[in-house]
Amino acid sequence: MAENVVRVSHKQNKPIKVLKWKVREGSTVSIGRIILFYDFNEVDKNVHLKLKSTKAGTIKKILVPEGAIVCFGDPLYELKLCNHPTIMNDMCAECGADLRKYDNIAAVASVPMVHAIPDLKVSEEQAKIIGKADSERLLRDRKLVLLVDLDQTLIHTTNDNVPPNIKDVYHFQLYGRHSPWYHTRLRPGTHKFLENIFSQFELHICTFGTRNYAHMIAMFLDKDQKLFSNRILSRDECFDPTSKKANLNALFPCGDNLVCIIDDREDVWSNALNLIHVKPYHFFKHTGDINAPPGLEKHEEDELSGIDLSNIKIKKMEIEM
């Protein structure tokens, strides 16, 4: 934080009398907070004026006592300015300043650190502190991080019409009763695979699917939230619409040497050395990667593998009310 000496300044350019301080040394102040009451040492003692802070920070030192007469330009107190190292929804978590109201305020918080709270940003310095603590925890637990992709890696999803009686297919809507239906099949052995590696890896989901889609699929993979918890990075949190690699520095500010990745696509990770490239999983014929990033659509195996739904007859199903 930079330091700033606040001096007497007002339009009337006259000495003032400090009546009462409303802050103490060490107090955190936001823009607009009352710092002290004062008057112009005149006959009318009932007129108490307010001095409000025009900057956010911490009161380092009060320079004049109550009852003192100070002239225009004299120092009142020292303020340690807040550089807004932690921001949530454009509000500083340190001083409480609403940064949307002040275009000229410089903030150092720019690194999103938590999957479940994409609006929370911290400074690079704070990010490295958090990242170091995470690395130490992983080493202590003797674990690595495993980032797993969803579409065509662990699952295959289509939005074509799918008969309701196909075994092991999840049917769901994301945006209410009148929204489109999605149909998802898990890759065979997925649950067993995740259970087996859980003791050795901290599992994260990293997908180009939307946030609602990613969390819905996570429920199918991990209904008790034991495996992934809230470690889900979706398209809505990604920095780059065509690259997942761009997120690694934010998620792991101290480096990705403890990180492994499994994905059916190498291009979105810029062919990273810590990527395990898996064969794409196709269950529904005529459907590729429905969440492929713009310009990177993939349909090369759509006609070669998977179940052709046009040849399946829908069985009559009795529904109990």
Automatic annotation (TrEMBL):
<dbReference type="InterPro" id="IPR004274">
    <property type="entry name" value="FCP1_dom"/>
</dbReference>
<dbReference type="Pfam" id="PF00364">
    <property type="entry name" value="Biotin_lipoyl"/>
</dbReference>
<dbReference type="InterPro" id="IPR036412">
    <property type="entry name" value="HAD-like_sf"/>
</dbReference>
<dbReference type="InterPro" id="IPR023214">
    <property type="entry name" value="HAD_sf"/>
</dbReference>
<keyword id="KW-0378">Hydrolase</keyword>
<dbReference type="GO" id="GO:0008420">
    <property type="term" value="F:RNA polymerase II CTD heptapeptide repeat phosphatase activity"/>
</dbReference>
<comment type="function">
    <text>This promotes the activity of RNA polymerase II.</text>
</comment>
<dbReference type="InterPro" id="IPR011053">
    <property type="entry name" value="Single_hybrid_motif"/>
</dbReference>
<dbReference type="InterPro" id="IPR000089">
    <property type="entry name" value="Biotin_lipoyl"/>
</dbReference>
<keyword id="KW-0539">Nucleus</keyword>
<dbReference type="GO" id="GO:0005634">
    <property type="term" value="C:nucleus"/>
</dbReference>
<protein>
    <recommendedName>
        <fullName>RNA polymerase II subunit A C-terminal domain phosphatase</fullName>
        <ecNumber>3.1.3.16</ecNumber>
    </recommendedName>
</protein>
<dbReference type="InterPro" id="IPR011947">
    <property type="entry name" value="FCP1_euk"/>
</dbReference>
<dbReference type="InterPro" id="IPR039189">
    <property type="entry name" value="Fcp1"/>
</dbReference>
<feature type="domain" description="FCP1 homology">
    <location>
        <begin position="139"/>
        <end position="303"/>
    </location>
</feature>
<dbReference type="Pfam" id="PF03031">
    <property type="entry name" value="NIF"/>
</dbReference>
